[in-house]
Amino acid sequence: MAPVTSLTARVNQHLADALASARPEADGVDPLLRRSDRADFQANGILALAKKAKSNPRELATQVVGNIVTGDVIKDVEVSGPGFLNLTIADRAITENLAARHADGERLGVPLKQEPGITVVDYAQPNVAKEMHVGHLRSAVIGDALRGMLDFTGEKTIGRHHIGDWGTQFGMLIQHLFENPGELAPAEDVDGEQAMSNLNRVYKASRAVFDSDEEFKERARKRVVALQSGDKETLELWQQFVDESKVYFYSVFEKLDMEIRDEEIVGESAYNEGMPETARILEETGVAVRSEGALVVFFDEIRGKDDQPVPLIVQKADGGFGYAASDLTAIRNRVFDLHATTLLYVVDVRQSLHFKMVFETARRAGWLTEHVTAHNMGYGTVLGADGKPFKTREGETVRLEDLLDEAVQRAAEVVREKAQDLTEDEIQERAAQVGIGAVKYADLSTSPNRDYKFDLDQMVSLNGDTSVYLQYAYARIQSILRKAGETKPAAHPELELAPAERALGLHLDAFGDTVFEAAAEYAPHKLAAYLYQLASLYTSFYDKCPVLKAESPEQVANRLLLCDVTARTLHQGMALLGIRTPERL
Ligand code: ARG
Q1: What is the maximum span of the chain, computed from C-alpha positions, in angstroms?
Q2: What is the pLDDT of residues 502-525, one digit of tens each?
Q3: Of ligand 1's atoms, which has the minimum distance to the CA of residue 348?
Q4: How far is the CA of 188 from the centre of ligand 1 (A)?
Q5: Which atom of ligand 1 has the smallest separation from the CA of 323?
Q6: Residues 321-349 as b or e (16 or more Cβ within 10 Å = b)
Q7: H or E segment at 171?
Q8: Cystine design at 297: which of 312, 438, 499, 575 (Cβ 3.0–4.6 Å)?
Q9: What are the tens digits of pLDDT across the range 75-128?
């Protein structure tokens, strides 16, 4: 593996050196380098420096220009406006940079983090015995993309699927199964769809009795106590619900083309044993106090409705533990056993108050420190075409599988229309990659904290900012590379580059920086925007610069190099987002 220093970093270094030799106080001043329309880059940092040094910015800029080393990366530099620098990069440097990235395989020259941390990513956390909804889809898609990007930077990630597999609602379910054994077919005999329909049936049946029969209600309540005290028979019945649900979860995740590992499914129940200890520590350290029998944490700064202070309930007056206790105990486990440096939660923004209180409690207890931080990547709501929370026409939450199936079906129409030499099997395979990719991309290309509209027509459209557009760009490049046959991509740094080649080459150079930024900010939409721009720049390049019919064999090879690095960057970038790039479409 040979990491490549980006052109931006090299230019930055040259500028920093020139600034430092012009002014000693410039040491550490950011040259503020940006891509620009006028030249390749513009540096705006001199304005701040001039202010600091109390000198005329234009004069200072002229002085700095005199100190800039040109010839290797920087071809040309000039002062513009009140003291900006416009910089042009040498064609040779662009081509050599691409060649170095091309030689570095999948990593494309992107270096690994110097001091990686351990990030525990809490995502894709559906609830046992319940249907998954679009909110769970977002958590899974965003969490998976964040992990992909973080891993690529060299960060170590550990997944935690904090599934809802514990709590009072299980009393009713278990009691029903106890009284009606055999209602749930063994998990190994069912597929995902059957599993969910069994669970739904049991849920409805038990709910009906629960709501109408006071004695059953009482038996269900006792069942909760038996569950929490670890009664063997009760736990076995509970396990049946968990196993049946997992069959269903896995079938949905498979449809989503997402790898979920069993050892990372660590639900609320896993923290059951540690909860009394959590409560004890919090009470002994005075972080939590007894109030009307319950153990609670108060916050001056956190207020809910009507400006009333909202306490966090660690333990209820009846001794029971809830959602907060399991999250607090999970934090202890993630910090002290998994040695996490960052805790990331990909959870609906509507739970942000809960996390604010949980994090603050953990800070007071000393579990979270300046070295171990926690973030809730709270995502917004999925809206229907009418701009209201996504529901079926009957007003019910949309079944996730129906949604995914429909996306794949729509994608099949698009693929079939364009397909020339594909068999029906190939069309179906591509349709799955296009349809699921479309759903993921639509989610990931908006900032996670914003709501977004679930609009299948737009998602599978060939025009605009969609995954299909990116997948077609990739497939088109592959077709050119196939047509090139024995002519292989090769760098010819002596060749002058056309403007469209330069623009594409410079954008390719920014891949690594973009992934690092998007990962650090938990902003997959920044990577998506980068990839979309990459495909657009490729399209203009393709329109303006003949590849296989270029002027000379050298130029053909050099342009094939651009094509190949573009394809690999698209492929890698999409893979980080969890989206496939078929070789043919
Ligand atoms: N199962 C929860 C839900 O469906 C989400 C769990 C989020 N993670 C956590 N550590 N609380 O709303």
Answers
A1: 90
A2: 999 999 999 999 999 999 999 999
A3: 12
A4: 26
A5: 11
A6: bbbbbbbbbbbbbbbeeeebbbbbbbbeb
A7: helix 169-179
A8: 312
A9: 999 999 999 999 999 999 999 999 999 999 999 999 999 999 999 999 999 999
Residue showing tokens 């509507």: 350
Query: Among all chains, which residue has been given the structure tokens 């040779």?
Result: 92
Structure-block tokens of residue 333: 């486990």
Cα(82)–Cα(44) distance, integer angstroms: 10
d(CA 312, ligand 1 centre) in Å: 16
> Is the interface score ipTM higher than 0.90?
yes
DSSP state of 337: I
Of 162, 343, 353, the residue with max ligand 1 atoms within 8 A of its CB, to mutate for a pocket test, comes to 162
Report phi then psi at 453, rounded to 5. -90, 130
For residue 62, the one-letter residue type is: T
Q: Which atom of ligand 1 is nearest to the CA of 351?
A: 12
Q: Give the residue whose CA is nearest to atom 9 of ligand 1.
A: 162
Which residue owns the Cα nearest ligand 1 atom 5? 125
In DSSP terms, which residues pair with 344 in a beta bridge? 121, 375
Cα gap 438→455, rounded to integer Å: 10
159 in Cβ contact with 346 (< 8 Å): no
Residue 28 above 80 pLDDT? no
Instruction: Name the residue type at position 578.
Output: G
Looking at residue 177, what is its pLDDT?
A: 97
Q: 546 phi and psi, to 5 degrees?
A: -60, 140
CA distance 117 to 341: 6
Q: How far is the CA of 80 from the centre of ligand 1 (A)?
A: 53
Tokens of 501: 């080649």
What is the position in ligand 1's atom list of the atom closest to the CA of 347? 7
Burial 538-548 (b: 16+ CB within 10 A, else e): bbebbeebebe
Q: Which atom belonging to ligand 1 lies closest to the Cα atom of 127?
A: 1
Nearest to 75 by CA among 39, 31, 37: 39
Give distance in angstroms: CA of 269 to centre of ligand 1.
12
State how far Cα 232 lies from the chain centre.
40
Q: How far is the CA of 140 from the centre of ligand 1 (A)?
A: 12
Compute how many other C-beta atoms are within 10 angstroms of the C-beta atom of residue 292: 6
Q: How far apart are the first and last CA of the chain?
A: 31
Report residue 109 CA to chain centroid gap.
Answer: 22
